[in-house]
């Protein structure tokens, strides 16, 4: 069953014991059937539909759930899973480490449809990747106007462990220098729960707008986000992304 959780914590822990990035690390379990029979879709509170989309699809999924995709990286030496999200009808955002060393990327939507992947590009200065698709994507959210502030609500939509669609909630605790040195500048720290396979998930504000991209978790179960400002800067720079290398 899809889980919804919201946790609050005390002060911001700036000394992080990291469990590492949340995708592409070790061999993860194989994917379940494309549409798990035990999914019970519910709508997170106060989330608006994506641009041009209805609040709910006929099968009960809302716009922010429809924009999330599950990514299986059939790699050169191992299988790993991650998440991603659409920003337009043919463009997905995920993490660079989710698509690294890939022989084949298998992308599926909330309702189990497989999406044909075209080109994949990765950013040189951030743990971000752009995946272009041949098939149209069912929904995409808006990007927020600015990075969130400490205390702002955050919702994470993704596929932890390559399993069922999951929505977790929390709040932004602050910003810190990237402990993994995968991104230039500061990253966001939140207490929204994430797990391996959540890498590449969209982090959304209370209006359903993207405010960051999940890329790792800490040893004390906080989540780390590439901020919206970094994502926007990379997308605005024609030289920021280069074709991903395969095996």
TrEMBL record:
Organism annotation: Promicromonospora kroppenstedtii
GO molecular function terms noted in the UniProt entry: peptidase activity
InterPro entries in alphabetical order: Peptidase_S1_PA, Peptidase_S1_PA_chymotrypsin, Peptidase_S1C
Pfam assignment, any one: Trypsin_2
Protein name: S1C family serine protease
Assigned EC number: 3.4.21.-
Keywords: Hydrolase, Protease
GO annotation (BP), single: proteolysis
Keyword Hydrolase among record annotations: yes
Coiled coil: none
């Amino acid at each position: 069953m899809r889980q919804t959780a919201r946790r609050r914590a005390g002060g911001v822990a700036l000394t992080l014991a990291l469990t590492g990035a949340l995708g592409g690390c070790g061999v993860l379990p194989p994917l379940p059937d494309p549409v798990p029979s035990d999914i019970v879709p519910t709508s997170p509170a106060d989330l608006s539909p994506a641009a041009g989309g209805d609040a709910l699809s006929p099968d009960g999924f809302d716009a922010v759930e429809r924009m999330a995709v599950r990514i299986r990286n059939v790699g050169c030496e191992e299988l790993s899973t991650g998440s991603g999200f659409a920003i337009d009808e043919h463009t997905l955002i995920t993490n660079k480490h989710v698509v690294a060393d890939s022989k084949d990327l298998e992308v599926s939507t909330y309702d189990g449809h497989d999406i044909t992947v075209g080109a994949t590009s990765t950013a040189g200065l951030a743990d971000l990747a752009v995946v272009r698709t041949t098939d149209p994507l069912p929904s995409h959210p808006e990007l927020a106007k600015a990075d969130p502030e400490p205390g702002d609500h955050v919702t994470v939509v993704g596929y932890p462990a390559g399993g069922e669609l999951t929505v977790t909630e929390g709040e932004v605790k602050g910003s810190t220098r990237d402990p993994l040195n995968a991104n230039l500048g500061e990253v966001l720290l939140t207490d929204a729960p994430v797990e391996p396979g959540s890498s590449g998930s969209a982090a959304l504000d209370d209006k359903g707008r993207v405010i960051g991209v999940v890329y790792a978790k800490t040893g004390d179960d906080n989540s780390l986000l590439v901020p919206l400002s970094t994502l926007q800067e990379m997308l605005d720079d024609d030289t920021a992304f280069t074709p991903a290398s395969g095996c």
